[in-house]
Specification:
Oligomer: single chain
Organism: Pseudomonas putida (Arthrobacter siderocapsulatus)
Radius of gyration: 27 Å
GO cellular component, one term: cytosol
CATH superfamily of the largest domain: Periplasmic binding protein-like II
Family: Belongs to the LysR transcriptional regulatory family.
Number of domains: 3
CATH architecture of the largest domain: 3-Layer(aba) Sandwich
Strand content: 15-25%
Protein name: Transcriptional regulator
Pfam family, one: HTH_1
Number of strands: 12
Shape: elongated
Mean pLDDT: 90
Structural class: alpha/beta
Order of helices and strands: HHHEEHEHHEHEEEHEHEHEHEEH
Length: about 300
């Protein structure tokens, strides 16, 4: 079936207003013309869309179904207009990214810089979120692309490997573990810790591994900023587990020591997550392909 977009737009307004006369005033279209278009839609579908009563109109089950898809179509057309007008004005696309701190602190700035040199007119909105919030944002359509740790559940999303990072133990210089080259996580659990946000992928991983060992994290402080975590550690408030490439920039300035975590799970994979690659815009596909080649 082919649907007339003007008729669908009028039907959406009728459904919202529940009244043909109010729709006529809003749309500046005669009531008779609106009624004719609704009748044509009903004939095309083969089922009544409206039930008329003393107060106006009510939607039939078929009308409710048409309203749902008509609104989706209207939103899609608006997005299409926005994207294509961007090409006409030279913007050439807009990408919304939600990512975990590890990705934003380590890899994304460099990868964005390389991409921006190739496609300088593409614009980005970037938000830092914990892994579970990234997944929700992508699934709900509030983000076009998410970057998460592989351990984060992402049912319903399509994922691709992005980068690899290593979790390492950070301790103050002079700490009992500072002279060690490698340490097992079971030993770390004997010490008080400075931990990340409760919903962060690192916290989820550490909690899971501690439970597997029959122990619990001795968390003295929880804080979301990597920089603040390092400052807390340097002041003797606990040890922390952080991405190695993040800790490298703080070791000298904060008088810290990085100790290798002798655990297979300390080697992590970060993933790109989106609703469906085949259904993505050409701009988003180009960016995802660029990131997939970055590692």
């Amino acid at each position: 079936m082919r649907y007339d977009l003007t008729s669908l737009d009028l039907f959406i307004t009728v459904a919202q207003e529940r009244n043909l006369t109010r729709t006529s005033r809003i749309k500046h279209v005669a009531v008779s013309a609106i009624s004719k278009r609704i009748t044509e839609l009903e004939a095309q579908i083969g089922s009544p869309l409206l039930v008329r009563n003393a107060r106006g109109v009510e939607l039939t089950p078929a009308g409710q179904s048409l309203l749902f898809y008509a609104r989706q179509l209207k939103q899609t057309m608006a997005q299409l207009d926005t994207e294509l007008s961007g090409y006409a004005s030279g913007v050439k696309g807009h990408i919304r990214i939600h990512a975990i701190t590890s990705a934003l602190s380590q890899f994304l700035p460099q990868d964005l810089a390389g991409f921006a040199q190739l496609y300088p007119a593409i614009k980005f909105d970037i938000e830092e979120r914990v892994g579970s919030a990234v997944v929700r944002a992508v699934a709900d359509g509030r983000a076009d692309l998410g970057i998460i740790a592989a351990q984060t559940p992402a049912q319903g999303l399509e994922t691709f490997p992005y980068r690899h990072d290593e979790l390492t133990l950070v301790v103050p210089v002079g700490h009992a573990l500072a002279t060690r080259q490698r340490v097992r996580f079971e030993e770390v659990l004997e010490h008080e810790m400075v931990g990340p946000h409760l919903e962060s992928s690192v916290h989820t991983l550490l909690t899971s591994e501690a439970e597997r060992l029959g122990k619990a994290l001795k968390l003295r402080i929880r804080i979301s900023s990597f920089d603040c975590m390092c400052r807390m550690v340097s002041n003797g408030l606990g040890v922390a587990v952080l991405p190695r490439s993040v800790t490298d920039q703080y070791l000298r300035s904060h008088k810290l020591k990085a100790v290798t975590l002798d655990e297979p799970w300390a080697q992590r994979t970060l993933l790109l997550a989106l609703r469906k690659f085949d259904g993505a815009s050409a701009t988003l596909k180009t960016f995802v392909d660029h990131l997939k080649l970055a590692d």
